[in-house]
Amino acid sequence: MATQSNLIVSLWYANLLLVGCFSTFVTGITMKGEETDREALLAIKSQIRHDPLGVTNSWNNSVALCRWEGIICGRRHQRVTMLDLSHKRLTSTLSPYVGNLSFLRYIDLGDNSFHGFIPPEIGRLSRLQTLVLANNSFGGTIPANLSHCSSLTWFNANRNNLVQNIPIELGDLLKLETLAVAYNNLTGELPTSLGNISTLQHIYLRENHLRGRVPETLGHLKSQSI
Ligand SMILES: *[C@@H]1O[C@H](CO)[C@@H](O)[C@H](O)[C@H]1NC(C)=O
Ligand SMILES: *[C@@H]1O[C@H](CO)[C@@H](O)[C@H](O)[C@H]1NC(C)=O
Ligand SMILES: *[C@@H]1O[C@H](CO)[C@@H](O)[C@H](O)[C@H]1NC(C)=O
Ligand SMILES: *[C@@H]1O[C@H](CO)[C@@H](O)[C@H](O)[C@H]1NC(C)=O
Ligand SMILES: *[C@@H]1O[C@H](CO)[C@@H](O)[C@H](O)[C@H]1NC(C)=O
Ligand SMILES: *[C@@H]1O[C@H](CO)[C@@H](O)[C@H](O)[C@H]1NC(C)=O
């Protein structure tokens, strides 16, 4: 009898120990993730040359990460899921560290003065659904690596200075519903691979230097401006 209750007690302690180890382990992972997010956002902040509205003032170590302006975290984990810096009169380039915010579902940088390249590291964001870069001065090409954002439904890069072809690889974005790249300096042909995207409903291409015809497979579009 006594040995049995001893056994139960020691099992109970072993259990406690296990639970303790496990939660330390989980907390460790969570904190590591949070630290990666913090580092990434501070890298993004460090590239901002002009922030007249003081949006990123709260991006400092005395404020909890999930309370930083323009940031929303997931409810279960304290990881950044939304980055909304739209209409903030920011002058900046976009740090490649953005690709480390691995829980991001939503990025809106619309209507600022972002310039430089769209970092190909964005291709690491497999949960990203919305990417709005419209009304900025992004130059260079649309990175082919964007094709790895397999959850992407909405890509709006209207009104930038993007050049060269629309990458063939964008045909891999099998959940894409809106492709808006009007008012850029894109050239070449519209890739026929876009015809592979059965979800595509809206496509905006006007005011570029694109050649060729819209693939017949895109006949089901709800709206287009080409
Ligand atoms: C951190 O952000 C808060 C909220 O915006 C601000 O009041 C505080 O002055 C900031 N601290 C530093 C050191 O910038
Ligand atoms: C984050 O991304 C940068 C640049 O893309 C990389 O050099 C760095 O090692 C990454 N850091 C972490 C903590 O993942
Ligand atoms: C970009 O500017 C156009 C024209 O000024 C405006 O209609 C559109 O809503 C703006 N979009 C974003 C995302 O700021
Ligand atoms: C391109 O995307 C892949 C897949 O997400 C990623 O492993 C790779 O690091 C990205 N390339 C760059 C230059 O970031
Ligand atoms: C875009 O194209 C126009 C006309 O072809 C040209 O004048 C302008 O310099 C180009 N802009 C960029 C950023 O390449
Ligand atoms: C996607 O489109 C390209 C070009 O139209 C075609 O060669 C390829 O077989 C298509 N892939 C799939 C999976 O449908």
From TrEMBL:
Please give the GO cellular component terms listed in this UniProt entry.
membrane
Which domain of life does the UniProt lineage start with? Answer: Eukaryota
Q: Where are the transmembrane segments?
A: 12-31
Q: Known InterPro entries for this protein? A: DNA_repair-toleration, Leu-rich_rpt, LRR_dom_sf, LRR_N_plant-typ
Q: Which residues form the Leucine-rich repeat-containing N-terminal plant-type domain?
A: 35-73
Pfam families linked:
LRR_1 (PF00560), LRRNT_2 (PF08263)
Q: How does it sit in the membrane?
A: Single-pass type I membrane protein
What is the similarity comment for this entry? Belongs to the RLP family.
Question: What protein does this entry describe?
Answer: Leucine-rich repeat-containing N-terminal plant-type domain-containing protein
